[in-house]
């Protein structure tokens, strides 16, 4: 199924179940009655209670709350009220387009944005109210979401990935030569997908260019990858000085660098340079994980599948050692007390996007439902907040407490007892609120 038909099918399902689209209803007073609350950290739901939303914030929680005049009343009927889900590793554009489509000479920024906007809306209707975009064209799409032109989750943008020549973000075709020697930026750079930056000066410029456009964090390629043509997974990328330049420029703006890396060597160098977040890390050893725990370095990682129907054979082969390491990484990182965050990192296979919710179920091999719910709400929100003053949406997320931002899901079922209720959002997500606006309400007449 192609991108447009997948999104259209999902939107039709939601509309039949009573969905409000576009920018959502204007914020006002909303009172949830008779709901059992998962607050983002607890191991049990509360007794039935009431939750009042005023504007875009949670105003009060308590069974004796009065109904404000003119408030919209939503009868929970004992269902679960929980924070919106958060995915901290998405690529809204790269996940909306296949690799042949991305390489097509007919692809324009406008067509790419349209495809990404369709997937962003579907993502919001799966209950993901916040995401961290970890590289690619994003500025126009985020502006469209924030202005209400497109429905979609809150977006913490990285902007173009920053990569050395022959690094994980070097997306040049074989016919495209080095910009430094031949003066012509690659098509991927022109589309805003990546910066190929070598040396301290170019890295500084690339980081500052992303910050100029509004990056909430910087994504740097520090090691080889499975979806890139030139770099084996085991290689280390960027010298210490280059990486330190990225950290210094980011810290000057009050934010942080996250690195794509798998191996202990690449990650040790990144930690020494001052990097705060490691993406992936499936080949990490116990010693390096211990250093990360001690220095409070975040590990933002995924549960990757061995193969998917449309996966390129090259990616499948390069992924083998990563898959072998992942089953060891999750339980070891948990045992050592590493700060863990979860994301999906779907790339180049739009049909995969509908598996975003079911991907959470793969964590049940190592974590309890309560631990998983805390990770994808409270803990992932803490990682988003690491952007400090570059946080595009000031306020607390991932919790249900007074003055927190009103990103909420009313769920038919108890996800602490049965996490699989989250795997079927069209069936089980009765109400979706983002920023106090009703994006879906299946209780409405």
Automatic annotation (TrEMBL):
Signal peptide range in chain numbering: 1-22
Domain Amidohydrolase-related: start-end pairs: 80-437
One Pfam family here: Amidohydro_1
Keyword Transport attributed: no
CDD domains: Met_dep_hydrolase_A
Gene Ontology molecular function: hydrolase activity, acting on carbon-nitrogen (but not peptide) bonds
Keyword terms: Hydrolase, Signal
Name of the protein in question: Amidohydrolase family protein
């Amino acid at each position: 199924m192609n991108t447009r038909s997948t999104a259209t099918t999902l939107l039709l399902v939601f509309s039949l179940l009573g969905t409000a689209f576009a920018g959502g209803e204007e914020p006002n007073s909303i009172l949830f009655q008779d709901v059992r609350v998962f607050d983002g950290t607890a191991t049990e739901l509360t007794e039935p209670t009431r939750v009042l939303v005023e504007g875009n914030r949670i105003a009060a929680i308590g069974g004796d709350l009065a109904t404000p005049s003119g408030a919209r009343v939503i009868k929970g009927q004992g269902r679960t009220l929980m924070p919106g889900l958060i995915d901290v590793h998405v690529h809204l554009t790269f996940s909306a387009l296949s690799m042949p489509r991305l390489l097509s000479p007919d692809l324009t920024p406008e067509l790419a944005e349209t495809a990404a906007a369709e997937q962003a809306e579907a993502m919001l209707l799966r209950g993901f109210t916040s995401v961290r975009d970890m590289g690619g064209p994003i500025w126009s799409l985020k502006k469209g979401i924030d202005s209400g032109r497109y429905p979609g989750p809150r977006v913490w943008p990285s902007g173009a990935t920053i990569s050395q020549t022959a690094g994980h973000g070097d997306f040049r075709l074989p016919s495209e030569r080095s910009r430094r020697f031949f003066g012509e930026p690659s098509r991927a750079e022109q589309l805003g997908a990546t910066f190929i930056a070598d040396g301290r000066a170019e890295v500084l410029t690339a980081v500052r260019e992303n910050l100029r456009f509004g990056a909430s964090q910087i994504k740097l390629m520090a090691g080889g990858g499975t979806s890139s043509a030139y770099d084996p997974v085991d290689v280390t990328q960027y010298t210490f000085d280059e990486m330190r330049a990225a950290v210094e420029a980011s810290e000057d703006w009050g934010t942080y660098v996250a690195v794509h890396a798998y191996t202990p060597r690449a990650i040790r160098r990144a930690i020494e340079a001052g990097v705060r977040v490691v993406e992936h890390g499936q080949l990490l050893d116990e010693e390096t994980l211990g250093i990360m725990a001690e220095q409070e370095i975040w590990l933002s990682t995924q549960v990757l599948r061995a193969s998917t129907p449309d996966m390129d054979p090259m990616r499948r082969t390069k992924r083998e050692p990563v898959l072998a390491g992942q089953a060891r990484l999750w339980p070891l990182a948990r045992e050592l007390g590493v700060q863990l965050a979860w994301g999906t990192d779907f790339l180049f296979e739009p049909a995969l996007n509908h598996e975003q919710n079911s991907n959470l179920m793969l964590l049940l091999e190592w974590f309890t439902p309560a631990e998983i719910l805390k990770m994808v709400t409270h803990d992932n929100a803490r990682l988003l907040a690491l952007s400090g003053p570059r946080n595009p949406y000031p306020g607390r997320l991932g919790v249900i407490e007074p003055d927190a931002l009103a990103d909420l899901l009313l769920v038919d079922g108890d996800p602490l007892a049965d996490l699989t209720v989250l795997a079927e959002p069209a069936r089980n997500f009765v109400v979706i609120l983002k920023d106090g606006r009703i994006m879906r309400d299946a209780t409405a007449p």
